[in-house]
Recover the amino acids of this structure.
């Protein structure tokens, strides 16, 4: 039986979360309906929206969340290729006009369009759904990091070890780079060390810049700014590889890769609540610098991340701190806000079953 209602998380006011129920939107001929198994919180985006940022201040109450893993339970006649029983990773479900949604993926059931570029993507045959719950968030950092074309043996520094920064570091480690990370939280530095960072530096120390530069010769080949902060932006520019300065009376042979067409790369992987003034001439870069602001992810990034997860290049379990019931969402978001939790996944499997039986 196809449900007509869904249980869903609701941001009722700044800092307030509850579990509610709403009618599912009517499915079109190119839509599929899924029962949700897991949704993954995107802490940076969702916590800022819960605080009223990113245009959310005048939108309360609304349904949050933008990514999910679900099982297909109905297929429209024009939803070509999809089958009942398929496991899919999805973003941005259709909204119901009766209830406001800013993305709206934290729900027990979803109606998903298949005739758009960001359509649901299939998981591999025999997949364990929770092993792919990080697909959509991991795809954002994957796009930025792979755009920099990291090479084995290059040095990379990642500023900020929230989920986007942690995934950025993981992709760089998987590419064979020598990776260092910087963050304010010791717990995040500790997890970065466990999962491949060669050095983890506390951002609160007065010698943070000098400590990071000791990890390099003239600065990093790749710098990822994932903190979303003004200090992070300024530090990122100071860490990018610079042209060597010749000490008075000494001869220095410049490494060949300092010349044009092999410039250092600076990747912006965060959103910023304020404008950051910066004098580009103060960076003292060498012949040039490549800056990358990948923004979102495409369907090809999502397919590639699923394949990397299937092969075990990275593991979702390394990035999941807490699997919680949707009924415990208020406490889960509070844990993220206080930094007691690194990440949260909601398990909707029982909620979806109860919702279906209720109808």
């Amino acid at each position: 039986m196809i449900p007509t209602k869904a249980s869903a998380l609701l941001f009722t006011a700044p800092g307030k979360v509850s579990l509610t129920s709403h009618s599912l939107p009517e499915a079109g001929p190119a839509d599929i309906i899924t029962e949700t198994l897991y949704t993954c919180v995107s802490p940076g985006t969702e916590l800022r929206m819960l605080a009223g940022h990113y245009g959310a201040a005048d939108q309360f109450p609304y349904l949050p969340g933008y990514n999910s893993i679900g099982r297909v339970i109905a297929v429209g006649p024009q939803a070509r290729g999809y089958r009942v029983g398929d496991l899919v990773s999805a973003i941005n479900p259709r909204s119901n006009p009766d209830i406001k949604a800013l993305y709206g993926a934290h729900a027990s059931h979803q109606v998903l369009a298949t005739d758009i570029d960001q359509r649901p993507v299939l998981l591999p045959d025999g997949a364990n759904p929770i092993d792919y719950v990080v697909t959509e968030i991991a795809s954002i950092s994957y796009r930025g990091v792979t755009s920099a074309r990291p090479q084995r043996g290059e040095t990379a520094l990642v500023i900020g070890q929230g989920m986007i920064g942690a995934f950025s570091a993981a992709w760089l480690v998987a590419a064979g780079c020598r990776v260092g990370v910087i963050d304010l939280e010791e717990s995040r530095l500790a997890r970065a060390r466990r999962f491949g960072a060669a050095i983890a530096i506390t951002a609160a120390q007065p010698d943070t810049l000098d400590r990071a530069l000791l990890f390099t010769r003239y600065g990093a080949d790749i710098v990822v700014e994932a903190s979303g902060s003004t200090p992070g932006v300024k530090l990122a520019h100071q860490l990018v590889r610079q042209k060597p300065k010749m000490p008075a009376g000494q001869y220095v042979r410049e490494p060949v890769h300092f010349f044009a067409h092999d410039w250092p790369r600076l990747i912006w992987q965060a959103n910023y609540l304020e404008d950051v003034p910066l004098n580009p001439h103060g960076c003292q870069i060498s012949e040039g610098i490549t800056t990358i602001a990948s923004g979102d992810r495409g369907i090809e990034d999502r397919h590639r991340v699923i394949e990397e997860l299937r092969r075990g290049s990275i593991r979702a379990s390394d990035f999941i701190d807490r699997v919680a019931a949707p009924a415990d969402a208020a406490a889960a978001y509070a844990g993220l806000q206080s930094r007691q939790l690194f990440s949260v996944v909601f398990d909707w499997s029982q909620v979806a079953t109860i919702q279906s039986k209720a109808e």
In short: The radius of gyration is 22 Å. The chain has a mean pLDDT of 90. The chain has two domains: 5-133+320-358, 138-292.
